[in-house]
């Protein structure tokens, strides 16, 4: 049985992107990227929406790019071996980069629960819109927050409204650039 996880990089005021959709302020330092490599080595399945899938296609198509750092090349190879489930009503099967990428128009909480039960490793839900229903249903067992020391004043919220969960702190780390990593478990 896998672990359902929600990982997000967010501003100090709780947003993953500003009102224009920009999230360049969240680009990880090499120190933080190393933590992402460690995390991704545990991930067996990634659930994401269309925007995230389109953003991450680079890692499926250019994992060994000449412009990539050695760490980015490792990430690309890890990414290629992860099962990907893409939640989108606008993409078509022809838009999928890899033959085994799964496209679903909607993902209900029961299906998310089954994916978690059937997985061998961590099932990471990437993106607040895709994760919202699973968070509301109390399905997420692990929350990982990278909190960047910036206040952006609005945009796409990292967490849905109307949810109260009592979490237990499992790990914490402060990086040289002031970013704080917090890992919580629920329940």
Explain what the structure shows.
- The chain is globular.
- With 187 residues, the protein is α/β, with parallel strands linked by helices.
- Strand 9 and strand 10 (180-185) form a beta hairpin.
- The protein contains five helices and ten strands, in the order E-E-H-E-H-H-E-E-H-E-H-E-E-E-E.
- The strands form two sheets. An eight-stranded mixed beta sheet has the order 5-4-3-6-1-7-10-9.
- Helix 1 (30-40) packs parallel to helix 3.
- InterPro entries: DHFR-like_dom_sf, RibDG_C, Riboflavin_Biosynth_HTPR.
- It comes from Enteractinococcus helveticum.
- Residues 5-180 form the Bacterial bifunctional deaminase-reductase C-terminal domain.
- This is Dihydrofolate reductase family protein.
- Pfam families: RibD_C.
List keywords for this structure.
alpha/beta; 5 helices; two-stranded antiparallel sheet; 187 residues
List the helices and strands and how they pair.
Layout: E1 3-11, E2 15-17, H1 30-40, E3 43-49, H2 50-61, H3 70-80, E4 83-87, E5 102-104, H4 109-118, E6 122-126, H5 128-136, E7 142-148, E8 156-157, E9 168-174, E10 180-185
Parallel strand pairs: 1-6, 1-7, 3-4, 3-6, 4-5
Antiparallel strand pairs: 2-8, 7-10, 9-10
């Amino acid at each position: 049985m896998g672990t359902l996880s929600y990982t997000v990089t967010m501003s100090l005021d709780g947003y993953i992107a500003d009102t224009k959709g920009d999230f360049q302020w969240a680009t990880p330092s090499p120190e933080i990227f190393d933590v992402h490599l460690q995390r991704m080595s545990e991930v067996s399945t990634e659930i994401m929406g269309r925007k995230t899938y389109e953003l991450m296609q680079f890692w499926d198509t250019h994992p060994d790019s000449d412009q990539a750092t050695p760490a980015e090349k490792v990430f690309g190879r890890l990414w290629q071996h992860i099962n990907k489930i893409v939640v989108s009503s606008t993409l078509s099967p022809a838009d999928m980069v890899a033959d085994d990428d799964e496209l679903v128009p909607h993902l209900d909480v029961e299906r998310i629960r089954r994916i978690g039960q059937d997985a061998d490793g961590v099932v990471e839900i990437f993106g607040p819109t895709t994760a919202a229903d699973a968070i509301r249903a109390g399905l997420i067992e692990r929350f990982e927050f990278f909190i960047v020391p910036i206040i952006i004043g609005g945009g796409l919220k990292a967490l849905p409204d109307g949810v109260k969960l009592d979490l237990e702190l499992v790990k914490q780390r402060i990086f040289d650039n002031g970013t704080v990593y917090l890992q919580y478990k629920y329940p």
